[in-house]
Amino acid sequence: MEGMSLNMIWKKLSLSELMKYHKPELVEGYCKQCSNYNLNWSCPPHDRDVLKAFLNYKSVIVFGVKTKNFTRTKSQLTHFLISISDKLPCHVLISGNCDLCNKCSKPDRDVCTFPRKMKYSLESLGFHVSDICEKVLGVPLTWDSENPEYFAVAAIFYPSELELTVKKYLREGVDIITS
């Protein structure tokens, strides 16, 4: 494993390696069963080819955070990733749907309230997150309802010359996200 702490695991992939897990028809079928489907700007169906913006990058770091409190970790992770995307020329994918607003504006408006801050997730763009967790990060997702341990998964797409900077931010972010 490329990077690892007590609660965070990450691995650098080429874009072509990540695309092996792009299964949009299968994943959108799962999304259609979710209460956020078509009610959140970050969730499918998308009115344009959102994935296209990510295909210009050749490098991606996929990472996961083990947590007992998914909601808190997801929020910390989202804000951390937004701060990285504010500082670096990169694209980030968060864990799960965007929840920057108390209520997403999609059902009521034609535009997102915070379009520059809103982020998509791996799954919303058709990536099979369970396979990524197990085959890339080595952590199978479990669905134990009595004693759940969650795994929040996200990604950073970046120009290859920024690799050391991105990894530095990830190492610094471990304490922020897992505290």
Description:
The structure is a single chain. This protein is of the alpha+beta class and 179 residues long. It has one domain (3-178). Helices cover 31% and strands 17% of the residues. The chain has five helices and five strands; from the N terminus they run E-E-H-H-E-H-E-H-E-H. Strands 1-2-3-5-4 form a five-stranded antiparallel β-sheet, sandwiched between helices. Helix 3 (70-87) runs antiparallel to helix 5 (163-178). The mean pLDDT is 86.
Could you outline the blueprint of secondary structure elements for this entry?
Layout: E1 3-4, E2 8-14, H1 15-19, H2 24-31, E3 59-67, H3 70-87, E4 91-93, H4 129-136, E5 150-158, H5 163-178
How many DSSP H or I helices? 5
Low-confidence stretches: none
Q: Give the strand order of the largest sheet, numbering strands 1, 2, ... along the chain.
A: 1-2-3-5-4
SSE string, helices as H and strands as E: EEHHEHEHEH
User: Largest sheet at a glance?
Assistant: 5 strands, antiparallel
Question: Could you tell me the strand content as a percent range?
Answer: 15-25%
Categorize the overall geometry: globular
What's the pLDDT, averaged over the residues?
86
Give the termini separation: 22 Å
Q: How many DSSP E strands?
A: 5
Q: What is Rg? A: 15 Å
Structural class by helix and strand composition: alpha+beta
Helix content: 25-40%
How many domains, as an integer? 1
